[in-house]
Amino acid sequence: MNKIFKSVLIGAGAAAMALLSSGAATAATPAPEIVGGTQAPATPWAVQLVFQQGGTASYGCTGEAISANWVLTANHCVDGTTAMKVYYSNSTTDRGPGIVVDQFKSSPYGDVALVHLSTSHALSSYPTVATSYTTKKNDTGVIMGYGRRANAVQATGLFQANIKVLGTSSDAYLGRAVHIQGVNGAANHGDSGGPLIIGGKIVGVCSTGDTSDPGANINAGSNYANLTRHAAWITSTSGVATS
């Protein structure tokens, strides 16, 4: 059974991201994050989301700032969320100040969501969100995310890994997903909402993993919600054009 990757934040300096069971529409079971890969270069638009879902425990997800006011992430990161802050630091040990989220928007087509900032935060550039992506076996790309490393060792910042596409699959809300496999690193709990980048564009966001805990397996599989069906919704909700 596919599992969503979300983990409890153990303290102010600990980061974690989520991934839920495929088909689930409730908060994820806490667990660990990115396995292998390499530390990512400075990426201002790759943000950390820290939030509460129906209690006092803090959770985390990865997000992509696509404008000064909107962040793209996974739906299971906002489903049932009662409070959230967005952090623009790539460091998980020194996040700096957070910006309060005042709106959560869930796509009707699967595990994709947008969150709106209560205070605008402009960047010099933003990532390109793909209008469409047709899944092709053996396509290659890059994934990014925050959280623990192999065997639950805590990461200090943003990591990335190279992947290859295996085919199509389903996300946590039964939407269309891209099934991927790690090449030099793999997604794990804590990478939920993080980007799948192919051809220089974000084509999907992290939803579920093929196993509940990949341990140190850098070739573990995962499922990224394909943004194709969500593209028009993203534009109509945020005003950000896809391409």
Written overview of the protein:
The protein has 243 residues and is mainly β. It has one domain (1-20, 44-243): Thrombin, subunit H. 3% of the residues lie in helices and 37% in strands. It contains 1 helix and 16 strands. It has one helix at 231-238; strands spanning 3-4, 35-36, 38-39, 46-52, 58-65, 70-73, 83-87, 98-106, 113-117, 140-145, 159-170, 176-182, 185-186, 195-198, 201-209, 221-226. The chain has a 6-stranded antiparallel beta barrel with strand order 10-11-12-16-15-14. A 6-stranded antiparallel β-barrel has the order 4-5-6-9-8-7. A two-stranded antiparallel sheet has the order 2-13. The radius of gyration is 15 Å and the shape is globular. Mean pLDDT is 87; it is low at 10-33.
* Helix-and-strand structural type: mainly beta
CATH class term: Mainly Beta
Tell me the count of domains.
1
Shape: globular
Taking pLDDT < 50 over at least 5 consecutive residues as the criterion, the unreliable ranges are 10-33
In order across it, which strands form the biggest sheet?
10-11-12-16-15-14
Give the mean pLDDT: 87
What is the H/E string?
Answer: EEEEEEEEEEEEEEEEH
Largest sheet: 6 strands, antiparallel, barrel
Radius of gyration: 15 Å
> In the CATH classification, which architecture applies?
Beta Barrel
